[in-house]
Amino acid sequence: MANAATILHADLDAFYASVEQLLSPSLRGKPVAVGGGVVLAASYEAKAFGVRGGMPGRQARELCPQLIFVGGHFQEYQRLGDAAIKVIGDFTPLVERISIDEAFADVAGCTHLFGSPPEIARAIRQRVRAELGLPISVGVARTKHLAKIASQVAKPDGLVVVDPDTELEFLHHLPVELMWGVGPVTRARLAKIGVLTIGQLAKLPGQSLERLLGPADGEKLAALAWNRDPRQIRSHRRARSAGAQSAIGRKPAEARVIRSTLLHLADRIATRLRAKSRPGRTVTVRVRFADLRSVTRSVTLDTPIFATVILTELAEGLVRAILAEYPHEKTISLLAISVSHLEEHWDLELELPLGLRDEARRPGSRIGMARWAADCAVDKIRNRFGRDVIGYGSAALGLSRSVPDEFRKLAEKDL
Fold first, then answer.
1. pLDDT for position 27
2. Enzyme catalytic residues
3. Where are the alpha helices (DSSP H) in 193-307?
4. What number of other Cβ atoms are within 10 A of residue 356's Cβ?
5. Strands annotated E in 6-58
6. Sign of dihedral through CA atoms 30, 17, 333, 379?
């Protein structure tokens, strides 16, 4: 079976909007958007007018005056997403969930029970539709990358099986933005040199691609363009980092905006890390300017951290360093923090008061211990009474959040 198409990628179609149409039959066949100030998700009827996730609500209404906004049923998203993944798990234990509404599966070992991979894919689609009332698209291929592309081609509510003998014929005529890792910025860079299809990318000399995108990204995309993807299904994958980002529109690069946003992001990340006792050593920030250009900076620590204020201060220092390097940039549109190099097993070690400059940011120092104790108290209050009853200073009083935290949590991977 090594050269057979046994990898499935299943993806629920316009998931959040489809759930809203399922819960309210009156919305079926109508353009629906989840959200308000910003579009969190859109139905296919709304997408036909150009409405997309992440779009400001005002712009979405201009494109589609009859657009219906709904607030979102986050518990239902989680319940139905889990149920769909369970259906896939009824056919094979080799399931790798990559988000709330999509997963890979390797069915090589269960064809004697349930039939060929295409037959299994059809059975999954039928069961999800019959039991949950939701549309799901499935791609079947020999590699994970190609299976994911096939499921995108299959949308909406379809099935595409890629024959191993015609993989490159199928792949090379498709637009380059279907590739894993090609976002708007990379797509624009490739378009500038006339690369619009995966086939055109495959024919680029390796050195040209690496000069354009960097050695790592260039090498990765070159391999994927020829369907060289050795990755296997990992059914029990834990996240190796925890991150959060906030698109803030066009805001001045001022301390008030930056600290409020970073404290909110650090609070979300550090709460997750503490819940799993997995502090991290590397802190990375990303700043996106008004022209959509992004800059990242990181620092690796001697001691792992998961205290909210410590993480905020480290992130704030990195952002200030970025802004110092780009003094002419006065407007920012996005801030992001991630923590990586997470510890698997960790015990807090106390430190003697040595008067070090960074003592307040050392978890085992007197100040670090006090910050950790405050975090633990906040966690206990939230666990009992809800997250909104208590917050951290300017994060609680600062900028309004156009994307609810409940929605963001749906995308968080298990630590």
1. 96
2. 102
3. 198-202, 206-213, 215-225, 255-275
4. 12
5. 7-12, 32-35, 39-42
6. positive
